[in-house]
Amino acid sequence: MSAEIPSPSVVAVARDDAHRFSKPLHGEIRLVEGHGVEGDAHAGATVRRRSRFKGTWTEPNRRQVHLIQLELFDELAVEGHEVAPGELGENVTIAGVDLPALPLGTRIRLGDAAEVELTGLRNPCVQIERFQPGLMKRLIRRDGRGATLRRAGVMAIVVEGGVVRPGDAIVVSLPAGPHEALPVV
C-alpha cells in the first residue's frame, strides 16, 4: 500500500511591518503586483532589505516574496533544529514542491489569483545563526561534487496580485527551456 502524496499547497502565510528576522503568521496575506506582500517591511518595487542597501533605493527588488518548503522544517527537526512557519522570515510556507530545484523564471500560482516568479535562492545570513546556533551549517551544504547548496528558501517577485491563505492550492509552471539554475539573490 503506497502513501498518498498530497497536492502542493500553502501551509502558512506571514508578514511583518518591521525589519525583524521572524514574521508573525496571519490568516491571509495580499500580494501586490510589482510590490510584494502588502504591509510587509520588505515590500516595494525597489530594494527594501537593509543588507542590500548600497546608497540608493533604486535597485529593483528581486526579493519581494520569500517562499520556503515545509519539508525543510521536517529535515531540520531530524537534525535537532525545531523551526516553525514564519520563523525563518518567509512570507509563504508551502508543502509538496522542491523549491530550490526549480529553474529561474518558474511561476507559482498561489490560490485563485496570486502568482509569483522565482528570481533566486535566498542566501542564508548571520541572523539565522543568531536565531538558532548551528542552523546556518544545516542551511548551507555541499553536494557530492563540492557545489554549495543553499536551503533557506527562494525569492520571487509578484507578477499577479491576490490573496493567499493557508490551504490554497499551488500550480507550478516551468519556463521554456533551456532552464537556468536559480542564482543567489
TrEMBL record:
Domain MOSC: 23-173
Protein name (Swiss-Prot/TrEMBL): MOSC domain-containing protein
Pfam families in alphabetical order: MOSC
A GO molecular function held by the record: molybdenum ion binding
Gene3D superfamilies: PK beta-barrel domain-like (2.40.33.20)
InterPro entries listed in its UniProt record: MoCF_Sase_C, MOSC_domain, Pyrv_Knase-like_insert_dom_sf
